[in-house]
């Protein structure tokens, strides 16, 4: 957020989605800055304030203010549980800044350390138990990449901070793909270190991090998405990279996974910094392919349900359900100039079907035009005007959900974030960046309950909430949101202003409530509302909650 007037109040609003009840924390930004004891803060001058990260009840924010001769930059660390600021730290640089934390430690990093005419990543650690900065900073001399989420990624799992890059410092980035000087193989760079202990940084050898070969074709970098994930059962940490590769005459979007199996300390000899390969490995000539079980083949461009980049504002891969989950922009026949956002899910085929239809290499020799890609893709809601099996057209439920997903008819960009449980996005127009915006949340978490969230009434053909006088009886208790009061002196908790729908229940005649069967939304939504999404590795649900917050 950008403060341009001393009379215009800004609030930091935090909606906690884990636990019950779901309530909103509302913090006065100006008061938060003043309590941070930022030196030389001038309340009359414009400033910028934005949240960077939240985990384990810790919110990290960035404050910046320009002055005539300088520019102040501060990292503000706030505890929701304690209701106070834990630390405020002046920053030398905010280039590519990121923050990660667990309950014990917080780390932030910037690509700001000058070396050999370039910049290197440097990390700083903070103890959330002792409330002090760790004495040693960490300089990652060999970590390339600058776009977090695209070419580089950082995450905390258990007691380690992991980092991975899809680039290498030795890569000839400006070399043409078909030129003789282009490297035949590409490798990831991956490291980890124990939180609070920086004496040893574990770096995997290149031989364990093969990424792709030149025969896999050029990459359309605009589709790249890099993330780290941990298996919910085994705890194994893996790289997941989604990329679009151009083959001889067509392209395919795929998600590749690679396990990060760190050898014992005896192999590393403390810290491995030279990145030497195993004996016998010649990365200049050897070529390999990704094992089929580690690749999810996506769109090949021949499906009727494929969307180009401009009409795919949200492009993600859900690790929990092994599916491409996107928000795509379409138009209607009645309003061809109006953008309509919808959920698009492309599931992963079962092993038997997959082996029948795909070869293990991206440059598949089969005819992609003959593939049955449409069978793997679900759009939700369905096209308006499409006939249902009973011959009827789109229902009032369709139209209501469509209104939730599309709070405004026109937009230029979409801000978004996603994890295993929820997808959140917010459309915006570039000529009204400081105006109010709606936030849309699509949840697949059956334990998530919001104040004021209604169920669909099949009699009224409209949503119905607790206390709705138009109904004859109360809604089933499972549709009734839990309520509680959270008492923290320095914070204000409010009920979020929500307009939304819980699709896991419907209200039938007589006011009775029908709970969706496990894995069974109505036939219209069975594959669309979650597309058989797995919330946990061993629990399958189609529970979907669509919300619009303002």
What are its keywords?
single chain, 550 residues, mainly beta, five-stranded antiparallel β-sheet, 4 helices, 5% helix, F-box domain-containing protein
Q: Concise description?
A:
Helices cover 5% and strands 39% of the residues. With 550 residues, it is mainly β.
Blueprint of the fold:
Layout: E1 2-3, E2 11-15, E3 24-28, H1 29-35, E4 47-55, E5 58-66, E6 71-79, E7 84-90, E8 98-101, E9 105-115, E10 118-127, E11 132-133, E12 138-140, E13 152-157, E14 160-165, E15 185-187, E16 189-194, E17 202-203, E18 210-213, E19 219-230, E20 237-246, E21 251-259, H2 265-268, E22 295-297, E23 314-318, E24 323-330, E25 340-347, H3 351-357, E26 377-380, H4 396-405, E27 413-418, E28 422-428, E29 439-443, E30 454-457, E31 462-464, E32 492-494, E33 498-507, E34 513-515, E35 534-536, E36 539-540, E37 545-549
Parallel strand pairs: 30-33
Antiparallel strand pairs: 1-4, 2-3, 3-32, 4-5, 5-6, 6-7, 8-9, 9-10, 10-11, 10-12, 13-14, 14-16, 15-18, 16-17, 19-20, 20-21, 21-22, 23-24, 24-25, 25-26, 27-28, 28-29, 29-37, 30-31, 33-34, 33-37, 35-36
Region (Disordered): 352-373, 505-532
Organism: Trichoderma gamsii
Protein name: F-box domain-containing protein
């Amino acid at each position: 957020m950008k403060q341009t007037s001393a009379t215009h109040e800004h609030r930091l609003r935090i909606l906690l989605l884990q636990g019950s009840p779901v309530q909103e924390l509302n913090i006065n930004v100006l008061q938060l800055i003043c309590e941070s004891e930022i030196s030389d803060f001038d309340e009359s001058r414009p400033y910028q304030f934005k949240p960077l990260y939240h985990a384990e009840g810790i919110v990290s924010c960035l404050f910046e203010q320009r002055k005539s001769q300088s520019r102040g930059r501060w990292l503000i660390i706030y505890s929701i549980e304690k209701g106070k600021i834990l630390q405020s730290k002046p920053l030398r640089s905010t280039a590519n800044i990121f923050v990660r934390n667990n309950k014990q430690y917080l780390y932030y990093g910037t690509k700001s350390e000058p070396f050999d005419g370039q910049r290197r990543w440097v990390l700083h650690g903070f103890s959330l138990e002792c409330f002090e900065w760790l004495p040693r900073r960490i300089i990652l001399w060999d970590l390339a990449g600058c776009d977090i989420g695209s070419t580089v990624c950082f995450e905390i799992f258990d007691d380690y901070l992991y980092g991975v890059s899809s680039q290498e410092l030795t890569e000839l980035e400006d070399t043409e793909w078909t030129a003789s000087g282009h490297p035949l193989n590409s490798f990831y760079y991956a490291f980890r270190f124990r939180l609070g202990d920086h004496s040893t940084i574990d770096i995997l050898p290149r031989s364990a991090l093969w990424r792709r070969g030149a025969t896999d074709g050029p990459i359309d970098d605009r589709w790249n998405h890099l993330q780290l994930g941990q298996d919910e059962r085994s705890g194994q940490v893996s790289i997941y990279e989604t990329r679009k590769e151009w083959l001889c005459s067509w392209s395919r979007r795929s998600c590749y996974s690679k396990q990060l199996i760190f050898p014992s300390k005896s192999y590393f000899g403390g810290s491995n910094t030279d990145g030497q390969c195993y004996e016998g490995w010649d990365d200049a000539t050897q070529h390999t392919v990704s094992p089929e079980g580690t690749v999810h083949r996506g769109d090949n461009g021949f499906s009727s349900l494929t969307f180009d980049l401009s009409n795919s504002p949200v492009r993600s891969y859900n690790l929990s359900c092994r599916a491409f989950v996107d928000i795509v922009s379409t138009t209607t026949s009645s309003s061809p100039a109006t953008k309509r956002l919808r959920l698009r899910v492309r599931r992963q085929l079962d092993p038997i079907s997959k082996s029948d239809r795909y070869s293990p290499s991206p440059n598949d020799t089969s005819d992609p035009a003959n593939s049955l890609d449409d069978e793997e893709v679900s759009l939700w809601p369905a096209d308006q005007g499409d006939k249902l099996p009973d011959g009827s057209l789109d229902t009032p439920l369709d139209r209501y959900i469509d209104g939730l997903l599309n709070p405004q008819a026109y937009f230029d960009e979409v801000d978004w974030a996603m994890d295993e449980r929820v997808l959140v996005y917010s459309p915006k127009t570039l000529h009204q960046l400081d105006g109010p915006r709606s936030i849309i949340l699509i949840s697949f978490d059956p334990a998530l309950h919001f104040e004021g969230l209604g169920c669909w009434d099949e009699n009224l053909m409209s949503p119905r909430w607790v206390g709705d006088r138009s109904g004859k009886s109360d809604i089933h208790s499972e549709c009734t949101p839990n309520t509680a009061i959270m008492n923290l002196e320095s914070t204000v908790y409010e009920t979020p202003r929500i307009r939304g729908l819980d699709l896991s229940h419907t209200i039938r005649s007589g006011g009775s409530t029908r709970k969706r069967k496990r894995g069974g939304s109505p036939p219209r939504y069975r594959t669309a509302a979650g597309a058989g999404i797995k919330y946990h590795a061993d629990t399958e649900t189609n529970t979907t909650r669509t919300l619009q917050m303002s």
